[in-house]
Amino acid sequence: MIEAPLQVDPSSLASGVNHVWVLTVTFLIFFMHAGFAMLEAGQVRSKNVANQLTKNMLTWSVGVLVFFLVGAGISSLVGGAGDPFGYISGGSDSWIGWLFGAVFAMTAATIVSGAVAGRAKLRAYVSYTVLLAAVIYPVVVGFTWAGGFLNDIGPGFQDFAGGVIVHGMGGIAGLTAAWILGPRMDRYDDDGSVNVIPGHSITFAVLGTLILCFGWYGFNVGTAASVFVVENGELALGAFADTVGRVALTTTLGMAAGAIGASMVSLVKTKKVDTLYVANGMLAGLVGITSNTNAITWVGALVVGLLAGGQLPVVFEFVEKRLKIDDVCAVFPVHGSAGVLGALAFPFFAIPGYEVSFLAQAAGVGVIAIWTVGATGLVFGVLKLLGQARVSTEHEREGLDIAEHGVDTYPEFGGPEVGDGSAVRPDGGVRTDGAGDLPNAGQIKMVTAVVRPDRLSNVKTALAQVGAPSLTVTNVSGRGSQPAKTGQWRGEEYTVDLHQKVKVECVVADVPADEVVEAIREAADTGEPGDGKIFVLPVEDACQVRTGVRGPEAV
To answer: How far is the C-alpha of 310 from the C-alpha of 259, rounded, in Å?
Structure first.
């Protein structure tokens, strides 16, 4: 008996596969928030890391709710839709479409946080995120993707995956917000000269960059949303037929060329290939290719990527030194100017037969820039007038992690404790500070050592072994015989003559100070200049807080 072949409704199959594809790339785009978090956390000082991570999480959490309740409807309303909020009760198709739009919206929002890092109040940033998700970004979408008037200029403003609508808008908004807030403390001297403020972790910045590059394939390739279509009752490839391969290729070429372009300009400007410029260049190349990736030649992808990466050091220097705007994470040269460049270059490198107009591209860029600057300037301007835009001088100096969140991102910098804090004497007995005989001629001694941070764990162990486990450790910086070095942060050199050390203070009464000194010396010795110094000082008196005991017994 021959069974009939399984009958499958082509429309159902096409719909199911397309839904799976859109949801998969949507989740990939969401993962870009991990990249933004790491990239931005790496470029701020250690005292502001938790604040930056919190902003990234709240951008999504607050912004996506606002975009669902208000923003997506506003974009449809501006675009002329008859039922702008129909997606809320529209069912699975509408909800998936909304979520795909939401991850793009939240990408635009989170870009701003990198520009205002280190001095914006959390409440100010969250307030702006609410307004961006509700109105500012949705209006841009309404002008463009949702069917607004920018589509009526010639062949219409062309932006395939958001090179200007998402990234350009975010970069311009970030620059505007940073300008209104003003630079971080000590960023500029009184004469206007620039002080370099390095971020705390190149490692985080590069990890974040690579996560973003990975997610970008969802951003660009995922915009080719139709895997299958139904034609004459049969399945056929949709956008995958002639679009997805080109998008994957040009996205990859633009990314690589961006890194090369930034490296080349960095090498010319500083005689070195700056690691952060390479990372930012990869992203600038991706931004540059995002608006045109569906209809640009592979040669054009290389040229646009090279130009987008190459402009990065030049534009950053212009923003920093000429405009005096403290764009902490370089969001404007990475997202703003690179996005504008890609959109304006599109007509010159479009594939034969693809209709794109320079006039329409320029008009779209101009309208989006004017709207974004005006709306962002209004929001942060009002917040500044109300005294709610920027943290106090005291809070900025101590760091936003403590001031805004009450946490310390790096509360510990030593190794694990050794046992229970006591140590065994050579004769087998346990000796702790404050017990036994009184060496040091009956006096209390303070041994202070300044050593390399990486030797701290060894020093703690050595002190416990000689019976002096009680100690105080402080992060310090200073200079001595260790020679100064030249550092570089995003292409600019700065002198490192204050080296990071730890200061270990150990007050002893029953433990010979000479034993403590020798223990520290052996544990901290690397044989290189800069191993540190040890000082021994007499202590006039000591008092135990809990008992009030004075003298050597208090130690």
So the answer is: 8
